[in-house]
Write a structure and sequence with these properties.
7-stranded parallel beta sheet, single chain, globular, Rossmann fold, 43% helix, alpha/beta, 2 domains, 5-stranded parallel beta sheet, 16 helices, 416 residues
Length: 416
Amino acid sequence: MRVLVLTFGTRGDVQPYVALAAGLGVAGHDVALCTAEGYRELVESAGVAYLHMGNEMLTLVQTGMSQMKRPSDALRIAKRMTRAMRSSLLDQWEAARGFEPSIIVYHPKTLCGLHVAERLGVPAVASLPLPFFTPTADFPIPFIAQWPLGGAANRLSYQFNRFTAIAYGNMINRFRKETLELSRMSRWTDYLTDASGQPVPVLYGFSRHVVPVPRDYPEDAHVTGYWFLDQADEWDPPADLAAFLAAGEPPVYIGFGSMGFGRDAAVRGRIVLDAVNRVGVRAIVARGWGGLEMPSSSSRVHVTDSVPHDWLFPRTAGVVHHGGAGTTAAGLRARRPTLVCPVLGDQGFWAGRVHTLGCGPLPLPMRRFSVDGLACRLHSLINNPTYRDQAQEIGNALADEDGVGNAVHVLEHIAP
């Protein structure tokens, strides 16, 4: 196979696809990955061929995330990205035209994969690290943490997937007509079928041990297991981090990734510091994209920008994070109890799954973030043996799962 992988977003939207691409290469297939230039080093360090996509969208996302305080801010950022999206569509088309793939695997965020595959006459496979695309009665679309109306309403919630065609339909159809020389697509499509009316296969890079496969998923929805990119063996910690870890009991990890809080970042940092001191635990705090402003490191708290999760999490007593799909998977894989503080999007869904699995305390939504709430949950996270036991059980199950290998196998059966 010649596999072109298209993805875009935060690191959590890119790193699993790098792992998939690397696995395809190990299996003997020709593979290239097209994503924002800011991730080029990540892609090439995994031995995967990189294809250019401009950095404008990534810059907008990083800037916007550092200022984000509420869901309405996400809509404001989206309105500024139209021009960057148009440029990205052209970059992806040039990448595909030059690489000449026999199959395209794409994150729906890229907006491009299905259309380019149609133009080239090759199969297209949608791919997500969360159960967002395929309607099911078992639970609502993950952007809705809870839905009280039952199975029919759960399935109905997936009509949200039509938002892409409604919001960006003019831009996409202009790209189809002027660049790809294709006919227009309906502004009401949910992208579950291609231009010929055939179902679009979907690869889901999450584990059935964390989200049981819905009973009503069709045969073209493939839950493969997580796609982990292992970096622990290739990463050497800075001397100050290594010294902090060696100086006492395993710390708690606290970090909110790409979720920024604008002018509230200092307030959130003070809440974290006060809660850690109140409970008396040691902590490693990751600033992320401006999500937390912290004073300098101390004997109890080590402040860092970022550390590979697969290296750090096994060295902690527990993890506290925003509930991104990738960070959630990393914490569970490390067999560590987890506290999720969701901000927006699918984070509430993962927060609910972690708690339902018994791997951590009740989630603490960021809108209710406080010293009392965080301190209470930190104490429970560290001292409740049930959380440790359940996290160990889930981690053992994940260790036996070959998500990348399963995904490669699926693609080999889809490709001509």
